[in-house]
Please model this.
Amino acid sequence: MPSGPLVLSLGEPAGIGPEVIGKAWSNLKGETPFFVVGDARLLAAQGVPVAEILYPPEASGVFGRALPVLHHPAPAPVTQGSPDVRNAGVVADWIERAVNLCLSGEASGLVTAPIAKAPLYAAGFRFPGHTEFIAELSADAPFAGTRGPVMMLTARDLRACLVTIHVALDQVPELVTVERVCRTARVVHEALRRDFGIARPRLALAALNPHAGEGGALGLQEIDVLKPAAHSLRTEGIVITDPLPADTMFHDEARATYDAAICLYHDQALIPVKTMDFWGGVNATLGLPLIRTSPDHGTGFEIAGKGLARPDSMIAAIRLATEMAAARRAG
Model:
């Protein structure tokens, strides 16, 4: 069971991560404590009081007056807005250290500040992104549920979960298989029970084609893949709809009928999430032995160091991770 305070990894040091973390602490210092794995000097430069700690339990005692940091310095000087490949290794180290603290129970969950992939790739990083790296780091940890990772984007009362993520649109039809849809739905169903405290989750399955294929006139995936997947899931006791036209799934009345939407490709999920709350959306990874959330934005190099970054998404990510950790403890 997760215990200890929440941990944040600092992310790309030349981006807006240090700024939004500092602003998030200023807004949340009266709430549940968290601490940061990263370079304490970069956080102190944001104009917030910083307290270096040696062990996670110390965070609770200082959180109300200073941002607690497990200091792990960046090896090269940091210029805001200009990532340096010499710091790529420490970015990965911050993530790995934070993941290990979660797996050991010293932290209750992880919130990751954004990373820049180009310098990581240049330094030999072999994972597509954060999610795959964290999944690999936690692969050997015991976990009773269906393994993810599955990406969930949240905004207000919408939870949109992805069957495929960063793939070209012309590849989506071949990747949307019965097996992939069923695995995604199982991960989401279990996560809603375990990490959100929903006893009997209701899932809504999005169609791939306009008008849910119009009985086959506009595509056969609904008939050949999606309806069979939904039927199979219902035989397992999972509450899920047959494929629904995606253009009618996200208005207020529709959202009241389900707890999470199973979306088939990136924009099908991201457009409604970002329309509903452009600044405050959160990315959560489901189906892992640890809780992980992240703000739904990038490194913001163009505004880094200018004091313009909004902390809304980071604050929402911290609060969501806190709620998920509490639900997992209660379960």
